[in-house]
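Action item from last week, closing it out:
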Amino acid sequence: MAGPQKPSIARRLCFTIVAVALVVMIVEATSLLLIVAVANTSPSGIRKELLSAKRSVADASAVPDSTNAVWINSKILHPYIGFVFDTDNEKVNRFGFHGDPPLIDPAPDDYVIAITGGSVAMGFFQTARDLLVSELQKYPPFADRRIHVISLSEDGMKQPQQLMALNFFLALGYRFDCVINLDGFNDAVLPHVDNATHGVFPLYPRSWKWHANNTVDARTLRRLIRVARLQSVRIAARAVVSHFPLYYSPSLLLSWRVIDRRVKAREHAIKGAIGDDMTADTLTSAQRGPAFDRHSLEDVVVDSVALWQQSSQLMADACRSRGVDYFHFLQPNQYVRDSKVFSEWEIENAIGEPDYMYRALRWTPCQGQQSGKNKV
């Protein structure tokens, strides 16, 4: 009598596929449950976080996050302005600013606008300069003129860097018809957050101890190598999961988030250790700057705002003496109570719990005021 007939290869293969599919479904369903119940988010939320992280270039820095200065690796020192973008590594002009360089001999029908300030001013130049030109050309005085918009702005800039940048280019012989200064946040907040709390003269450019640091000891070098390796792990994991259709898998999204956050936490711990090694007692005189005895938040912000006002007035004086229109606008701050009605997108993308930097604004005497032409 013949024994039981073995299942065919096709049936065994089909069974295996069904079993694997069931396991995958269970894993995906469990991951989805964990994402919603434990992580308190959704797959689309993690997917947005993943794709946003993929586009970010800030993570490539080895500068400690404790100073909020992850951008320093893209900067070089400037003898008059403090710092500019590295012209060897960034898509900037020969002076280290975005866009075209200033015009040294504009034609009579050229109208040259310089925009200066910090990251908001730089963002305005990058995203809205064409809109500014098109709106101005609706008015008869500008209808037949070639309008050039020039950037003298850098993220992290604060007074007197804007003043120094303007005077530097004026001294070189460049001409402007209009200067728009959009600032106020960095000038009031960063002196305390990035300098004074680290034993550095508050009115120096932000995070000056890092800019002026020209030595790296063996221990710091080893830590930087570990940071670079951890960043490579994060970049590799991000690259794998951020491709269609993998980023629609709840299990892969959850795995990426867990791995990325754990590696990021370790990376930040090492960066913090680097920053902790550079205490006020270990700074050189080039990093510290002049001694100062007004250390409180209120004193530093009051002194910083006074410098900000004086610097803007000097910019206005320099422009007025050359027949240049000067407009000073206070940078908007979404944390000023009842300052505007926010859209759903703005609430989701621009509103968070105010951190220490924003709290410093409670001392800003200009908070809520409007600024206009030749006003400070």
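Closing note: Residues 57-70, 363-376 have pLDDT under 50 and may be disordered.
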